[in-house]
Write a structure and sequence with these properties.
CATH superfamily: Alpha/Beta hydrolase fold, catalytic domain
CATH topology: Rossmann fold
Number of strands: 8
Number of domains: 1
Strand content: 15-25%
Shape: globular
Structural class: alpha/beta
Helix content: 25-40%
Radius of gyration: 18 Å
CATH architecture: 3-Layer(aba) Sandwich
CATH class: Alpha Beta
Number of helices: 11
Length: 285
């Protein structure tokens, strides 16, 4: 069921491979009063920045097997966003623009010169989109791996009737969970990001111009997004968002390709690495 996407986005999931690639440089860099962790596999090839899903750390090893192949074509860097993995927290709450600005400072501090290609799964698409909006001249192209539709978190928090209440305990817990997007300090969300403000920021960022953009999506599911206990009138809003997603993805660039995996898993760089690596290589081929 698509409800798994919510849990994956917020908490992360998946079996992580054993680290298999050795970085050329790694460590903490100051980005203005606190430090972020970055590791790179540098060479004279084009630079690829690997961005992570919500709550996931670049240093968690999930990309290690992919990097072995990717570094044949790219100088690869990945990092941990603030409050995750080896990185320090920094001031909170933050917005998506804050996150992109911090990455920009990190790349400068680590002396990783632009321009960059990007790839990343799930929520990473929002960070990449924000970075492209703020530093347009530094982005060459991107692979967005099973990205959520734009407005995903906003829809979670706003689709419920005002003063909604129910005697159904399952539905009440579900409602409270989705309402957590209004609280940047929600304890289960380590990034402490203001998702509603971030939605407003990204409203004007839905274009990559004529940059090469590849969208990888998981195998479509016939199931609706929500569990059965969610009323149809509420569930329809999220289903409509997902139904419109492909058309909206196709509008992101004049050079966009949308492809589907045979895997129905969310983290395709783990479940379908062959497709992910092929797509990232295609950015420069």
């Amino acid at each position: 069921m698509k409800i798994l996407i919510t849990l994956l986005l917020l908490l992360g999931a998946g079996t992580l491979p054993t680290a298999a690639a050795k970085s050329t440089t790694s460590g903490l860099c100051d980005v203005g009063g606190f430090k972020l962790y970055m590791e790179c596999y540098t060479s004279d090839k084009p630079t690829l920045i690997l961005e992570q899903g919500f709550g996931r750390a670049g240093s968690d090893g999930a990309w290690s097997d992919n990097i072995i192949q990717l570094k044949q074509h790219y100088s690869v860097c990945l990092y941990d966003r603030a409050g995750i993995g080896n990185s320090e927290q920094g001031s909170v709450p933050v917005t998506i623009y804050d996150t992109a600005e911090r990455l920009h400072k990190l790349l400068a501090a680590a002396q990783i010169a632009p321009p960059y290609y990007f790839a990343g799964g799930s929520y990473a698409s929002y960070v990449i989109t924000a970075f492209n909006q703020l530093y347009e001249d530094e982005v060459l192209g991107a692979v967005l791996i099973d990205p959520p539709p734009f407005g995903y978190f906003y829809t979670m928090g706003t689709r419920w009737p005002k003063n909604f209440s129910t005697v159904n305990e399952e539905l009440a817990r579900y409602y409270q969970f989705e309402q957590s997007v209004h609280n940047p300090m929600f304890k289960q969300a380590p990034e402490k990001i203001d998702l509603i403000t971030s939605y407003q920021q990204l409203k004007t960022a839905q274009s990559f111009g004529d940059k090469r953009l590849i969208i990888l999506r998981s195998k479509p599911s016939p199931d609706r997004y929500d569990p059965p206990f969610v009323p149809d009138s509420i569930a329809q809003t999220m289903d409509s968002l997902f139904a419109q997603a492909e058309n909206n993805f196709k509008k992101l660039s004049s050079k966009v390709t949308v492809m589907y995996s045979e895997s129905n898993k969310h983290h395709l760089h783990i479940s379908d690495p062959e497709l992910v690596i092929k797509s990232i290589r295609a950015l420069v081929e």
